[in-house]
Specification:
- The chain has helices at 33-49, 66-83, 99-111, and strands at residues 4-6, 14-18, 21-28, 54-64, 87-95, 115-121.
- The chain is an alpha/beta fold.
- The longest helix is centred in the middle third of the chain and has 18 residues, at 66-83.
Length: 122
Amino acid sequence: MQPLIIEPTKKSPLIELKNGELNFRGCSIHNDPKTFFAPILEWVQEYIANAPEKTTINIKFEYIDSASVKSLFEVLGIMKKLARRKQVKVNWHYDLNDPEILELGEIIQSKIDIDFNFIESE
């Protein structure tokens, strides 16, 4: 499966989706997150059909708006299906000075049955 890479802008995150590793990093502020996340959701749907035994999802948002959270939740919901039969781990990175991002990760973890690893950065 071909990787999907979306370069970051001031309002959209870097997306790197490849075999065994999904990376989301930066800011996600979208008027229309469904359009931005559509190719990501499509890629993830195809990925889970032939995923390797282990998949790591690295998430490091500086800021994410509520509309983007909903789309991220959809991505992780699809990955939850994969986690039922293969190993899926989320590395949720958060800044020590940004408890809201940590709290968001904890809320998402409580709703999705995937192994989360919370990583504090300065």
